[in-house]
Amino acid sequence: MFICNHHIKASAKCYIKLLFILLCLNNLIGCQPAGKEPLQRWQHATDGSYAANISNDGKYSVVSSIYHGVGLWDLENNENLFNWYQQQDNSDNLVLAVDISDNNSHVLTASRENFALWNMKTGHSEGYWKIQNSNIRDIAIANNGKYLLIGKANGTVLHITRSSGRRLEFLGHKEKINSVDMIPNGRVAMSGGSDFIAYVWDTSSGQVIYRFNHTSRVSKVALDPKGRYAFSADSMKIAKIWDLKTGLLIKQLKHLDRQEVFSSVQFSPDGKQLLTGSPSRKVNLWDIQTGKRIASWRVKPKNKNRPSGAVVYSAVFRDNNHILTESSSGYAELWPIPKQ
Fold first, then answer.
1. So what's the pLDDT on residue 15?
2. 57 with 12, same domain?
């Protein structure tokens, strides 16, 4: 049968267009969040929150908000255990940073100018301190509240030993601190600043253990509680996972969104996955060995906010099948992890 060249070319073009459309649909489906709606959702703050942190085991969360002070929540029963009110001299002096110790003994809270320590079992305050000549940028706490870590806008990081009152200042950074973290025993700290550098350092001596260079300001750092990994990310789409024992790069995260910034980071208990949250409502699950994204979710946006949005303050593994999130919308949410 005779078929003209015109018909062959037309058929080929149609086939190519159809193939292109199918590929696009496949990509769109593959990039959809793992679950559009959470399995459960609990409101922990009316009209949103200023800061929040979920304990590493997913049993507790602490939430700072304008109407409820700083609330400690039992996530297994969704019960409000305590409400704490840090001294506030003016409307700007709000609790903007919170951290729970790895063993769920204490909570550290901080405004721009002061910080306080709270006992999770008794609900009592165990200390209140003011910062001079600078603002607080980020905080971290060791088990039993034994050591406190304060990152400041003047580029210094303060490590406090509570039992002795010893204060060690880490002076490695040349510009403001954006993020700090500390392993549970308080002996190793990590800090990232606007000088494009992330440092891992010894808190007993202040000596640098590793220096990780970036091409823009380091916006987020994190240490694996089990001492296996370190994480550093900058403001220009570079996020890296490091071997904490050797200082060598394990993997750089792949397929990041344009100028993606991280507001929350946690390593899985088995050391195989990484969970990140961002200021754009997104939560991502990553494979540590490949750097590839496995799944993603979007938390509930803040009510009456146009355009709608929410900062993911904390995202953790509740167990092998679920994750928990706390965001600026004032809600905690439980999400299923898709089967691989």
1. 40
2. no
Q: How many domains does the chain have?
A: 2
pTM of the predicted protein model: 0.88
Tokens, residue 38:
């959470």
Burial profile 280-303: b = 16 or more Cβ within 10 angstroms, e = fewer: ebbbbbbbbeebebbbbbbbbbbe
Distance CA 188, CA 208 (A): 10
The CATH number covering residue 164 comes to 2.130.10.10
Strand partners, 150: 139, 158
Using CA atoms of 244, 190, 186, 241 in order, give the dihedral in degrees to the nearest 10. Answer: -30
| Cα 223 from Cα 203, distance rounded (Å) | 14
Give the pLDDT confidence score for residue 89 in this predicted structure.
58
Range(s) of the domain holding residue 181: 31-336
Do both 134 and 91 map to the same domain?
yes
Give how far Cα 224 sits from Cα of 139, 293, 298, Å. Answer: 16, 19, 24
pLDDT at 335: 98
pLDDT for 25-37, tens place per residue? 333 333 445 557 9
The per-residue pLDDT for 93 is 52
Q: In angstroms, rounded to a whole number, what is the distance separating the alpha carbons of residues 40 and 335?
A: 7
- Give me the residues of the chain with pLDDT under 50, please: 1-32
User: What pLDDT score does 120 carry?
Assistant: 98
